[in-house]
Amino acid sequence: MTETVSATSEGQPTLAQIAEGSPYLIGTFRFWFDDQRWEWSDQVAELHGYQPGTVTPTTELLLAHKHPDDRDTVAETLAAAVRRGEPFCSRHRIIDTTGTMHHVLVVGDRLHDDTGATAGTAGYYVDLTAGLDQNKREALDAALPEFVEARAVIEQAKGVLMFVYGINAEQAFRVLQWRSQETNTKLRVLAGKLIGVIDAFDGAPVKVRTQFDHLLLTVHEHPDPKPEQ
C-alpha cells in the first residue's frame, strides 16, 4: 500500500474514523491480480454471512453476493481496477447468505509487491446499513467526493513527474511522498500546488513537441501495453 485509502481533506473525517465504534462495521480485504486471489478479514466474511475461515473468497463468489441491479457495475469497476492498476471506490448493495441486504462502501488502493510493481488492490469494506447514524451517513457522503478528488489530483501530479523525469508511477509517487514529508505538506495539497503552477512552464521544447506529435498520431498502431506483474 502506498497511501491510506482513508485520506481525506483537512477538517474531514477519514473513512475509518466515520466507521469507528463498531468492530463489525468495517473490514479489510486484499485482491491479488495475478492469480485472482482474495483475502478477507473476519469482518468481511461475516458481512457476507460466513463464519470466519469457512469459505475461500473468489471473484465469482463476491459477484454472486452483489445485488442483481449492482452486479454488472461492480464487475466493470473491478475489471477496470485490474486492467489499469488503479485505486477504485464503489458504493453498492450485497446480499448475505441469509438473504439480508447490506449497503456497503468498498474503497481499494494499490497493493505493491517487493519490486514496487502494482500487484493487486487492498482496502476497506464499510457496512452502511447498520451502526451508522444519520450524521455519520452525511459525513461519509461528504468525505467520499473529497477522497475521489484527492486521488485525481495526485494522479495528475504523478503523470507530470513521470513525463518530466522519465520515471514510473511508483517512483513518481515516492517523489511526491518525499516532498510531502520534507515540507510537512499534505500530499493532496502538494499535488494540487504542483498542478496549479505547471502553467508557468510554457510547454515542452519544440523538438519534444514534434516528437510527441508523431507519437500522438501513431499511438494507435503501437502494441497494447503489457499488464504489470
UniProtKB/TrEMBL annotation:
CDD domains: PAS. GO terms for molecular function: RNA binding. It comes from the Bacteria. Gene3D superfamilies: PAS domain (3.30.450.20), Winged helix-like DNA-binding domain superfamily/Winged helix DNA-binding domain (1.10.10.10). Residues 134-195 form the ANTAR domain. InterPro entries: ANTAR, CheY-like_superfamily, PAS, PAS-like_dom_sf, PAS_fold_3, WH-like_DNA-bd_sf. Residues 40-85 form the PAS domain. This is PAS domain-containing protein. The lineage of its organism: Bacteria, Bacillati, Actinomycetota, Actinomycetes, Mycobacteriales.
